[in-house]
Fold Aspartate aminotransferase.
Amino acid sequence: MNVPTQEAFTMANVPEAPEDPLYRLMREYRQDTNEKKIDLGIGAYRDEHGKPWVLPVVKKAEALLQTPEFNHEYLPIRGLDSFLAAAQRLMLGNDSPAIHENRVSSMQTVSGTGAVHLGATFISRFCRGTERPKAFISDPTWPNHYQIFSQSEFDVQYYPYYLVESQKIDIKAMIRCLEEAPSKSLVVLQGCAHNPTGLDPSQEEWRQIADVMAEKGHFPFFDNAYQGFASGDLTQDSWACRYFIGRGFECCVAQSFAKNLGMYGERVGAFHYICSPSPDASHVADRISSQLAILQRAHISNPPAYGAHIASRVLNDPKLFSQWQHELGIMSGRLTKVREEIRSKLEGRETPGSWAFLSTQIGMFSYTGLSKNQVRLLKSKWHIYMVSSLLLYAVDTS
């Protein structure tokens, strides 16, 4: 028998890729046998005992699903219609002209990551000129932003966002960068509870950002993974997105329910493309939906059903929705309390440095300013696990 000659298909020369830093940290934490170990790595809410908290409203919604009629059939390519309609209203508002004018194309996705990826793939395919499209992401940002947009064939660049010295947003440098960026660039904006700095622009600063983006013709790509975790108010945390849409921007939104419903493993998300107002906008939205469906079919065929059914119940049942709002307030309020307690304890021990940022930053993340050596020491000596991009999550401070 002849030995096949497949030199063109051999994988012998494939280099080993580095392990994802966050998931490496998770693995190291799980392998650590120390009883006092603390996980400050993965972005998941923990209760006062450091344990996962399944929201009571999620348990109630799950119980309501357990009827003889419930099944595990495939969803349509675009996902669960009742979930998508409710997700649109949650992000854009019940009275959104974009929704009522049928200018929104939505697709259920594999959480926020899937939404960002679907959006990046779609825009790269249909907004390509003679050069690679440019995407600007904040410095610093969620590490996966770079990977997703670069793998979607964008030329990824950074805009300044955080001033280490003052521990504040560098809004002047950000505006200057957007002014100097090539016209019609894509700009990734985190709508609330910025990851990893915990610092959001003020409403006036959002207006300044919108002004320069309108002048330059930039495309806003909102990543809203933490709605409800910045202020505790779902409407307030969607203000930036609604403001841009209200000004007539064509834009898109990646939406996740992993954090605010505490359903991390169910991977519930949505991608929304909002067409700017025009007589033909609803037809454009229909064509966009058809192309998104083609991409979705090739990538995942159709999205997971179970988590979407739970989310749909919570979003569409007035009593469950009210309970969810209350539980979001509990989580966001506790995050604020923990920040204040950590700051108080550090200042009470006269720990060198300024710790005021702990109570001025918001959401699940805190940019601590610790060096990589200090982070390594915390892990090796005290079994405290945090990524070198320096995040803090809600933990028991007692």
Summary: Residues 390-398 have pLDDT under 50 and may be disordered. The domain at 13-55+320-385 is CATH 3.90.1150.10 (Aspartate Aminotransferase, domain 1).
